[in-house]
Amino acid sequence: MKNKIDLDNLRKENLESIPDMERRSFLKMGLLVTGAFAGGSMLSVISNIDKVFASKAEMREKYPYKPHYSMVIRQDRCIDCERCLEACSRTNNVAEYGYRTNILEKITPDAIGQKREFIAVLCNQCNNAPCVRACPTKATYKDKTNGIVMMAQEKCIGCKVCVLACPYNARYFNEEKHAIDKCNFCYDSRLSKGYERTACSEACPAGVRVFGDLSNPDSEVYKLVHQIQRPVWVLREETGAKPNVFYTKG
Amino acid sequence: MANGYKPLKVSTVVSGVAKSLDASFFAEWASVLRDLLSGSKSFYLMILLGAAIVYFAAMGGLDAMRIGYRHAYAVTREVPWGILISTYIFFVVTSTGLCIVSSIGHVFGVKNFMPIASRAVFLSIVTIMAGFTVIFFEIENPFRMAIYNLISPNLTSNIWWMGTLYGAYMVFMIIEFVMLLLKQHRLATYAGLLGLVSGIVAHSNLGAIFAMLHGREYWYGPYLPVYFIASAIMSGCATIILFTWIAYKASNREMEGPMKKSMEAIGKLCTMMIAILMFFTSWKLITGSVAGGGKVEAIRAMMAGPYAMNFWVFEVGMGMVIPFGLLLMSKWKDMRMMAVATFMMMIAIFIMRYDLVLIGQIVPSWHELGVSEYPQLLSYTPSLHEFAVVLGGMGMVAISFMLGEKVFKGHKSEDH
């Protein structure tokens, strides 16, 4: 028969016969696929870092900010005790009708064993912040040194376009302050006074919220983000906002 | 244009304006006062009714300011923009549309569009002012806006461009109208051109406010800035047809030949714009139905969910299909049929703006995350305070229109 495969003379397709580059890109693809499959919006850390920062080169040589404040949420440790929310409200004069940070509950009914998980959310201090672009009067802006998305309250006209622009529902209008109120990593209430961590991070008994300088290789956030053993992801990555709050499990 | 585009000198402007301020000008204006005092009973009754609406609306608005918008309005953290934003859009869409339609005659010299110029320009000023009034009661710190828009501008912000350009637009339109009154047609043309350019750019920036929010799938993309311009022309046509008909009806006047021709031309443009809007809407639906999760949810809410009645009955039925049929049947000559069609369109366009603003917000930010806190869709129902402000804007337009007809003698001074 013409099309019959000649099994006896077929060349062995073992690892030696695959060129080096091909093998490397195959492995990388595998890593991406496992990352993406692990939880829908989840990504492996390699692709993740690339997306958060402008380019690989920029990421390796220089972070956009120094210190580059960032938070890693160890999602599976959260038990919804809400001490972080209390600490935040107390520290930052948050209105009782609003919040700067929140804990969301996600239920996966068909999961084996544990079905409920809690997801802490806050301002992601995005590198490409949609709120900052949309604000007509520069009332909200990226701090040039540390990258925190700040509020200049006296400039806020209360148009609320930033509330709509934010992909993370992190902003609300505060009547008493006559301006939008949002998380600023406790900059005015703590960081500027010499404290090293945010109120929520310090209040958490389970070490869910790890706060630190992402550009410092000795910091815990750096170590949690720059590794490939555990998945690291960001929320609503598709908006291109390049957030600085990372999520991990395990 | 009789004298075309000649280079403009300051001295000619001054002497031109001075020349028109002669004795006959003042005599004419003295007669305006007499006219105003000689209105019929029903005229004064209508004015009184309008004034009452504006009064109660103003009380409502001020009360909302006193108790705080958080308590007075139904908007929330998750749905921060409600009916006041959509009403603002409705008014500025109408204003921009009137400006565009009037410019066809006044700036570009198409004869059939000239008879409506004065009324259209006047109404465009009235509607933009109504829009600004409504937004004044929407923005939390309107006085800060005036200051920081100037001293702390953010050039990447569409709101900044829209606000600034609409401010300029209003000034140009007022100058145009005054020049029309003074019969300085060349100056009016220049002002009209500037008004047209700033109005169009401002309006597409209004669309871009929504179109550039990359976290909001329903709005994001180049569609809205273009759609806004097309729908503005449609609104402008409908508005001027309806208000011209009312003006003639109310003063028991027979429409003059040129005005009839003008209505026919604008009616045809209106019909064509409805057809264009039908394309826009159809493709929005069709492309949206195969989009990502959040957008599909929004489209579903519009086609078969809580916004289905607004969409099918008002937007599609009263806004497009029925008026399209009526306009075709009227052959653009039966004024009453055209008035019915355009009246339906005005109501539908108001709902269109409302749906545009709300449907973009009802899918929660955390939709894809699938958390328990946020149901499938968020909801919003306007509060009484919000309705009061909306009615106030409408009352303002109604009173200004009626007074305008009296003061400017039915906008008859069209001697091009």
Give a written overview of the molecule:
- The complex is a heterodimer of chains A (250) and B (416).
- Chain A has helices spanning 20-37, 45-52, 56-61, 83-92, 130-134, 161-165, 199-203, 220-225; strands spanning 69-74, 102-107, 116-121, 140-142, 149-151, 171-174, 179-182, 209-213, 232-233, 245-248.
- Chain A contains eight helices and ten strands.
- In chain A, the strands form four sheets. Chain A has a four-stranded mixed sheet.
- The longest helix of chain A is centred in the first third of the chain and has 18 residues, at 20-37.
- Chain A has one domain (20-248): Alpha-Beta Plaits.
- By secondary structure, chain A is α+β, with helices and mostly antiparallel strands.
- Chain B is mainly alpha-helical.
- Chain B has one domain (65-366, 374-410): Formate dehydrogenase/DMSO reductase domain (Formate dehydrogenase/DMSO reductase fold), CATH 1.20.1630.10.
- Chain B is built from 15 helices and no strands.
- In chain B, helix 6 (117-136) packs antiparallel against helix 15 (384-407).
- The longest helix of chain B is centred in the middle third of the chain and has 32 residues, at 257-288.
- The relative contact order of chain B is 0.15.
- The interface between A and B is large, with 46 and 41 residues.
Radius of gyration of CA atoms of chain A, rounded to a whole number: 22 Å
Listing every helix as H and every strand as E from the N terminus to the C terminus, the arrangement of chain A reads HHHEHEEHEEHEEHEHEE
End-to-end CA span of chain A: 56 Å
| Total number of domains of chain B | 1
What is the global morphology of chain B?
globular
Query: Any idea what the CATH architecture of chain B is?
Result: Up-down Bundle
